[in-house]
Amino acid sequence: MKVEFDDSLITGNTMIDNQHKELIAKIDALLICCEQGGGKVQAIKMLDYLENYTEFHFTEEEKLQKEVSYPALEGHRQKHEEFKKAVEVLYDMLVEEEGPSEAFVAAVKKNVVDWLFDHIKNMDRALAEYIKQA
Known about the structure:
By secondary structure, the protein is mostly helical. It is built from 4 helices and no strands.
């Protein structure tokens, strides 16, 4: 499964879009690792990097929201917390299993890829529009 940043994910905010490109590239690398039989240790390292980059991105995005007094900041922050919890569940799956399984890949697709794409197309796009108008 190839996960790529495409035009449907453009928010119009350069910083947000560039960070999304990096985040999606890391998710794609994790999925490729899993599909090519990468082991548990390699998958955990990639998940570590994804978690760290996600934390960086969410912090930057929330800082930007504070700077522009974005009225939906708290709801946006809560959605970010949901995503972090989904990543914790992925760690638990890797620890319980001998390596990335089909169930793990399905969970990444549902709880990371689908969630992130929906979040970008709705919440992040609304944020970028607000910033543009502010």
